[in-house]
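Field notebook, page 248. I keep forgetting to write these up properly, so this time I am using the form the group agreed on. The chain and the ligand, NAP, are recorded exactly as supplied. Prediction of the bound pose follows.
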Amino acid sequence: MDLGLKGKKVLITGGSSGIGAATAECFAEEGCHVIIGFNNNQSAANTILDSVRRKGSDGAICQIDVSDIVSIQKALREIETSHGKIDILVSNAGKNIVTPLERVTNEEWEAIISINLNGPYYLLRESITLLNEGGSVIFVASVAGETGAPHHPHYAAAKAGIINLTKSAARGLAPRIRVNCIAPGMTVTPMGMDTMSGRDKDYAEKKLLAKRFAEPQEIAKTIVFIASPAASFIYGATIDINGGRELR
Ligand SMILES: NC(=O)c1ccc[n+]([C@@H]2O[C@H](COP(=O)([O-])OP(=O)(O)OC[C@H]3O[C@@H](n4cnc5c(N)ncnc54)[C@H](OP(=O)(O)O)[C@@H]3O)[C@@H](O)[C@H]2O)c1
């Protein structure tokens, strides 16, 4: 199926690793111009850019710390100067720290909310004028935002906020821009494996209908689909991609 994405310009935060990197490669396969956001790992972002080019597409890398509004504004200004307006924004950058509910410090709470909720909101707000008419925004939430998570309550609360922000933004920006969200379950990435450490080895076998964790490409393909004109009637949705962890 032709997703109608050829030539579209895409910005992906957290494109230097895991789900974001797989998403960059997947958009490249559709012929998109891919701007790969990174925070600390510039060399990983360059490796993904090489991979985008090997697939016959082009793009760039861009440093954006989503926990810092000045960094967001500077990066978006640079993108507009070098690439013009964009068609698709994937707000994917995120961070988790595993700390039981009763032991989260004020600093840790604020840092996790800043990266996973404040940053995506500021990024959206600052990108509205950068997005072309007919554009699409995809937020990356988590199954934790639906179920709660006593071992990382700050992260779960932020992701629940993202699911709700998706609905507000979808209502506020339609029909000029479509806003949607995905809620992945455990995925084989550096963050996913950190979060899993300390859990039962047979967690997937016990809790998931799929009996295994997701590969980043399985999340990326859904992001690319809902960003595309092929999903033109999907507004304000949160798509579960959790191997059957939660059914609703
Ligand atoms: N993996 C899972 O099991 C899972 C499940 C549900 C939801 N998710 C969500 O999926 C998204 C991607 O996670 P992942 O598993 O692919 O993680 P990952 O492989 O650990 O990659 C995290 C990415 O986020 C970037 N990042 C971290 N802090 C940042 C900041 N302050 N500003 C900008 N970028 C920042 C990192 O950039 P640098 O490396 O360049 O610093 C990296 O590219 C996150 O929103 C996460 O919450 C993941």
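OBSERVATIONS:
- The domain at 9-240 is CATH 3.40.50.720 (Rossmann fold).
- The radius of gyration is 17 Å.
FOLLOW-UP: compare against the apo run.
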